[in-house]
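Deviations from the work plan: none for this task. Representative record:
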Amino acid sequence: MIKFFLMVNKQGQTRLSKYYEHVDINKRTLLETEVIKSCLSRSNEQCSFIEYKDFKLIYRQYAALFIVVGVNDTENEMAIYEFIHNFVEVLDEYFSRVESIDEPPKICSALEPQQACFSPDSSFKGAASTTPIY
Amino acid sequence: MPAVSKGDGMRGLAVFISDIRNCKSKEAEIKRINKELANIRSKFKGDKALDGYSKKKYVCKLLFIFLLGHDIDFGHMEAVNLLSSNKYTEKQIGYLFISVLVNSNSELIRLINNAIKNDLASRNPTFMCLALHCIANVGSREMGEAFAADIPRILVAGDSMDSVKQSAALCLLRLYKASPDLVPMGEWTARVVHLLNDQHMGVVTAAVSLITCLCKKNPDDFKTCISLAVSRLSRIVSSASTDLQDYTYYFVPAPWLSVKLLRLLQCYPPPEDAAVKGRLVECLETVLNKAQEPPKSKKVQHSNAKNAILFETISLIIHYDSEPNLLVRACNQLGQFLQHRETNLRYLALESMCTLASSEFSHEAVKTHIDTVINALKTERDVSVRQRAADLLYAMCDRSNAKQIVSEMLRYLETADYAIREEIVLKVAILAEKYAVDYSWYVDTILNLIRIAGDYVSEEVWYRVLQIVTNRDDVQGYAAKTVFEALQAPACHENMVKVGGYILGEFGNLIAGDPRSSPPVQFSLLHSKFHLCSVATRALLLSTYIKFINLFPETKATIQAVLRAGSQLRNADVELQQRAVEYLTLSSVASTDVLATVLEEMPPFPERESSILAKLKRKKGPGAGSALDDGRRDPSSNDINGGVEPTPSTVSTPSPSADLLGLRAAPPPAAPPASAGAGNLLVDVFDGPAAQPSLGPTPEEAFLSELEPPAPESPMALLADPAPAADPGPEDIGPPIPEADELLNKFVCKNNGVLFENQLLQIGVKSEFRQNLGRMYLFYGNKTSVQFQNFSPTVVHPGDLQTQLAVQTKRVAAQVDGGAQVQQVLNIECLRDFLTPPLLSVRFRYGGAPQAFTLKLPVTINKFFQPTEMAAQDFFQRWKQLSLPQQEAQKIFKANHPMDAEVTKAKLLGFGSALLDNVDPNPENFVGAGIIQTKALQVGCLLRLEPNAQAQMYRLTLRTSKEPVSRHLCELLAQQF
C-alpha cells in the first residue's frame, strides 16, 4: 500500500507531495527532510529501496528531480519502482519534459495548478498500480 | 483531461504567474500578491455580476497564491458557485479549490454537499467523476457520512460508465480506509466481485484494489473473487503482448493489474476447487516460464515490469507453501537473480529467498546458494543488500551449515556497519546456541562475539552464555579454560571481564590444577582488570572474589587484604562498599561449612524461551522470529538444542535466581544471584540472635530457608486435609514441577482429562462446577507392578488462597497396588476471587525410594463462571459501564494453534462464558459474557476476542468489575489459542 508520494529536487525542496495516510502537517516537513536526506546520500551502486522506520522508500532520480514513494512492507517494490517511471512518462507526455519541474512557478506555468494537483491522482489510465486513490 | 494547449489557458493568470516569477525579491512578490488580492476582492465585491470565466480565473489566482504559501481568507463562496456551472473547466476549478482548501465552515459544507449530490445524480459521467474525485480527495468523515451510502449504488449500477465505476470504486476505497464503519456492507458486495469480469481494465484494476481491502475484514463475503481473479489473471498472462493495447507496458500485458490480482489471491488459502487451482498453477508456471524466455524488448522497463509480476508470483507461491515443484522453481529463479548485475534485483531476490528458506519444500534448494550469499555478504557495496544477505544466511541456517554460516557472520561482523551490528550479534548468538553440537564451539563463538563486537553484545547474550554453561557440566571446564585465556589479552572488553569473572567464580576450580592457571594466577588476572571496570562489573568481581575464598581457601588472605583495602571498604559507591564489608565479614566469621553452603555452585537455570530470541523478535517486530520456528524442518534440533534439558535437580530445587539471569525482570547486572543473596542474608544473620561468631546449625537453616524463592507459589502451606497423620510438614512441600503451569493451562477450558503422567503414576481429573461450588475427582493410577507405600496426596493453599478458596479432601488408602487406581474426591468452594491455583502435593514410596512432586490443581477462577446471555444492546451498555482503564485487560498475541473458528468457539464455551452471536458487527469476532460466582461477591465479566487470520494474531479484551480478575482471566485465556 502506498503511504505517500513525493517529488523533491536536489536541494531537498519538496515540489509535490501527496499523502494517502494522515500525517500531521508539521510532521510532514520533518518526514520529507529525512526522506530526501536518505535518498540523496545514496550512490548509483546502491539499490533503490530503503528501509525507513516501519516502511520502505522506493525512489528514482530524473536529473535533478527525485520521486520517492513510501510504501508498507507488503508492497511489491519492483511494481512501484516501475510505476514511478510510468508516472513520469505520463507527465512527460502531458507536459513535455518533467525533469524541468523544479521551481514552484514553473510547476504552475508548465502545469496549470489544477493539473499539478490532479496529476498524481487522476491522470493515469487505470493501468497504474496506484490508480487515483490508492 | 484535455491536454494543455496554448490559447486555452487564462491569459490573466499567465500574466500574473510570469509577474510573480519575475519578482526580484520576496518583498516584491508579496507586494504583487497583495495588489492582486485587492483586485480580486474588489471584483468579488463589485456590483457587476462576474461571468463564469472571470470567476474561474480569479479563483485560480487565489489557488495559486495559496499554493505559494499565503493564506487565503475569501473566495470560498465564488468557488462553491463554480461547482454549479455547466462548463467542465469552471466546475473543475471549483472542485480543485474545494479539495485543496477544505473548510469546515458548516454553511459552505452544506452547499458543497448539495453541489456534489447534484453532480452525482447528473448522469453526466465527467461531472460524476469530478464529484467522486472531490469526495475522495477530501476523504473526511463528514464526506463519508454524506455519501458513503450512495457510492456503492453508483459503483454497481448497470448504466454507470466505465470511468465513473472506476472513480466510484476508488472513492469508496478511500472512504472505507478513512472510516470503515460508514461504508455499509450489503448485496452490492456480491456485485462488486463481478467487476473483476468487466471488460474495461481500468475498472478491473480499481475493483481489485477495493476488494483486496474489503476482503481482509470479511473474507467469506468475497470468497467468490478467487475464481474470477484466477480467470482474469490467466487471460492476462496468456495474452499476446499486444492484446491489451493501452494496458500493455513495454510489451508486458497489464503488469500492475497482474500484481494486484496476485496480491488479492494472497488474502486467501489455495483455491479448493481443483479446476480453479489447476488453472492458477498453470498461470504461475507460465509466469515462471516467461522469465526464462528471451526478453521481447531490450528496454529495462520491459524487464522491470516482467520482474514485478515474477516477484509477486513467487510471493503467492510462498504464501500457498504447498507446491514443492513451484517452490523449487521459484528458488532457482531467484538464484539466477542473486548474481544479476542490477542491485535492485539482487536485493529483492535475497529478500524473497529469505521467506523461501522457511518452507520445508524449498529449504534445501535455498541452501544450495549459500556460497553466493556469503559472497554477497562480503562484496556487496550497499549496506541494505548486505543486511538482506545476513538475514538470508540466518534463515537458511541449519545444523548442516551452522558452523560455516556462523563463522562467516563473525567475519562479517568485524567490518559490519554499526547500525546492524547488534542484530548480527543477536543472530550469531541464537544460531550458535540453536545448532551447537558441542558446546565448546558455542562458548568459543560467544567469546569471539564479545571480542569482536563487545559493545554490541547486550546483556541478554552474555546472560545466556552463563545460563548454558551453568546448566551443562560437560562444558564448564572448557569454558573456564577459554575465558581464562581470553582474559589474558592485553585489552579485553568489559563484557569479557563479566563473563570471565562469573565463570571463574563458579568453575575456576576446574582449571586450578594447571599451574599456569592456579588460583593465585586466576585471581591476579581478574584483579588486574578490576580498576578498569565500571561499578557494575567491579561488584560482580567482588562476588567472584568471595566465591574464590570458598573454592580456593589458599587465596583467602590475599582476597581479604583486597577487600580490607580502604579503596573498597570506604568506596564512595554504596553497593561496592556494602559488598566489600559484608564479604569481608562473611569470610572471617563463617565456618568453612557455612561458606560452602552460602557460596555453593549455582543451581541450573529453569528452561524457557531463549531471551535473546525474544529480544530479536522485539527488535524486528512480530513475525520476525518465524524463520526460526523451523521445528517442522528439523525436528531433532528442537529436542537437542531447543534448550538445555532440565536436570533432575531443577525439579527439586528451582533456583531463586531464575529471574535474575532470565529477563523477566532485568536485574542489576552486578548481582550474581547467590552472592547477592548471601549479602542480604548477612544482614539477617547479624541482626538475629544467632549473630555470634560461631554459627550453629540453626542459623544455617535460616540461610537455607532464606534461599528459597520468594515466589508467590512458595508454599507457606496450610493444609486443608484434616487427616493429621498424613500431614507432611509444610516446609517439606516442594514447589510445583516446572511443567505445572503448562499442565494447568490444558485444563483452563476443559474439566476432564489426564492431569499428569510419568513412568510411575498417572493422575486423571474429572470435575464439575456449579455456581461457586465444585467437585473434583482425582484418579491416581499406579502404572507399575509394584505397590506404592505411604501414598498421600494433599492439597495445599499457598499464600492468601486459604481465605479465597475452601477445599475439602478425603483421605485415600496409603497403599496403591501395582496396576490399581484410587480415587480422591475434592469438594471445592470459591469464597472470593483468587489468582493462584491450589497445589496438589503427591508423595509416596516406590520400591523404598521416596517420590514427591507438586502439581497445580486445575482450579482456576473461570471455573466458577456462570454464562449469561444478553442482547447486543445490553452488552454494549455494560461494556461501556466497565470503561475504567483498570477494569480492562487487553492482550495482543500470536496464534499458537491453527486459527479455526469452531475450535475457538469450543474453547470459549469451555472457558465458561456464554458466546453471544450477532453482537459484534464483525462476524469473525467472538463476544462472551458471564458472571463469576463466589461466596462473597459476584464479578461480571465481558470478553471480546478478535482473530486476525492475516497476521495470525489475536486481540483479546476483557472487562470485569474487578481489576485483578480482568488481568488474570486475560492471561489465562490468552494462553489457550
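Residues 77-95 of chain A form the longest helix (19 residues).
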